[in-house]
Amino acid sequence: MEPPKIWREKRERYLAIGIQCQDCKSKSFPKTSFCTKCSSSNITEYRLATSGKLLNFTKVTSTSKEMNSYAPFFVGIIELDDGIKVTGQIVDCKFEDLQDEMRVRMVFRVLARNGEEGLIRYGFKFTPE
Ligand SMILES: [Zn+2]
Fold it and tell me: Which is nearest to 79 in space by CA: 61, 102, 109?
């Protein structure tokens, strides 16, 4: 990812900001400039719910060169309490601790480091409640 894109998305990435359509009231994430359901541009930003339940999960043992130093790690699909579904890494637990439908909460962590002196990308991950 090029630095300009990182900085452009930084605020949404840090704050987990989605959009809510003022016409049909649907919510979506990541942020877009129009409603993904009815295409209205009458939207406002809102902060995603910070907890939810784990719908499914898996252990990643091999991935891209950039992320391989973090493997093995766990990723899951989380349904937040506001109904938005997001994918995210699940941290601070053992794989055996994870169960479908378990409660998880959002935490802010390093997502990746680009090289020894490269950019550090932060964002949200999840941990069991
Ligand atoms: Zn809409």
Answer: 102
State in Å: Cα 125 to ligand 1 middle. Answer: 28
61 lies in the same domain as 117: yes
What is the domain range of residue 15?
Answer: 1-47
For ligand 1, the distance from its centroid to the CA atom of residue 11, given in whole angstroms, is 23
Domain check: are 24 and 59 in the same one? no
> Which has the closest alpha carbon to 103: 78, 85, 82?
78
The rounded Å distance from CA 42 to ligand 1 centre is: 8
17 CA to centre of ligand 1 in angstroms: 17
Residues 81 and 107 reside in one and the same domain: yes
For every one of its 129 residues, what pLDDT tens digit does the chain have, with 9 covering 90 and above? Answer: 555 565 556 666 667 889 999 999 999 988 889 999 999 999 999 999 999 999 999 999 988 887 777 889 999 999 999 999 999 999 999 999 999 999 999 998 877 776 666 777 778 899 999
pTM higher than 0.85: no
CATH number at residue 77: 2.40.50
**CA dihedral over 68, 14, 124, 21, signed as positive or negative:** negative
